[in-house]
Hints:
This protein is an all-alpha fold. The protein has helices spanning 2-8, 17-50, 52-60, 62-88, 92-127, 135-147, 149-164, 169-192, 197-222, 237-269, 273-310, 313-350, 355-368, 372-388, 392-416, 418-442, 444-447.
Amino acid sequence: MNRISKWFKVDFLQGPIIRSLVIFAIPIFISSVFQQMYNMVDTMIVGNYLGDEALAAMGACSSISDLMVGFCLGVGSGMAVVTARSFGAGERNLLKKSVAMTMVLGTLVTLVISTCGGLFLRKLLELLNTPSEIIDQSYSYISTIVAGTLVMLAYNLSAGMLRAIGNSIMPLVFLIVSSLLNIGLDIVFISELHMGVRGAAIATVISQGISALLCIVYIWKKAPMLVPSREHFKFDKELCGELLGQGISMGLMGSIVSCGSVILQSGINGFGTLIIAGHMAARKMHSVCMMFMGTMSMACSTFVSQNKGAGNRDRILRVINYMYVYDVATAILITVSLSFLARPLVQMITGSTEEILLNNACRYLYVAGPFYAVLGVLLQTRSALQGIGEKLLPIVSSVIEMVGKVIFTIVFIPRFGYEAVIWCEPLIWCAMTAQLLVSYYRNPFVRGVEKR
Length: 452
């Protein structure tokens, strides 16, 4: 396993850009595949064993779940940007200090999230117009997910640290173990122990906890440069400010987007269980399509962060241009594939034969397909800005998305129904991408006029 890990450990600071990026991205992509796989398995087992109503119960709180996952992933990725920058600059002592402060701040963030979630979840489900016949199931699912926030953030922080030093293979190995365990536990808890949708949530938390533990043990034994000593836990105001600024900004970015999705979900929940279930299935497929761009976005963020620390401006500009070409080509392949595969895949995921469910889910995917080129450019540009050190501008793009979803929920969904839900995100992606591209090309570092 050590040999495989070394082969996938790349040097972003010199040598061929595309080769390094691809080698680094392959494990991240496979990680995304397994993550989506066990998300899909959750949905398939619930849909096939428990029926459309249970599937709708998961769908009704999916935006809240996405909010939690998005925030934890954002905080982990954001703090890893600071770690990667320290690694790129060759500052090993600062690297260990950043890991120590990340552990402390991550724990505090988790406590705040878990406390707030425990107090307000039920009320939030009621505000989202969750149908009365499924609200108890929705609450049992999402409350369990929120209770597992600590293990979710622990894995994302640990995996982010390993990727920050160029090791993307070991987070993949641990995620594969977690995914296989999750599938097995799903089957046991739902089909054998009859625990309902709560069983799916418990399976997710247990499997993520195992992957977090494996990640931490590996860092302790095999990545000593990431293991801080007691002196590294000494409070450093400037470093804490940078970690919190980068971590919270990326966490808020995901949360603000998810807040918009939560508001949008309130409009979707008013359409009934079949539309909710179909939308959830379409969103699962959307997540699969999105991972092709999201994977390269994560690799791009590490690449930019390390090269920013080393002062390699030319390599940063070149990698972004390569990524834009990749995004357009990938979007074309996704659009063509969806035209043939959308309906059978949605039917397989849901186990449903209801035409309303299938037609609306497919329509969602058909419209989104061509816009994945825009989404890819959005993700790459945002990752570049974050890697360079921008904290505010990526949040502005998230605010644009949230405001757009609020407007669609209030103005367009009551008038045009689910068709407005379908067109909501693609149109908002266009506005966000325009803002990010202007910000990127005006950035002093990108323009080569940054003051030293």
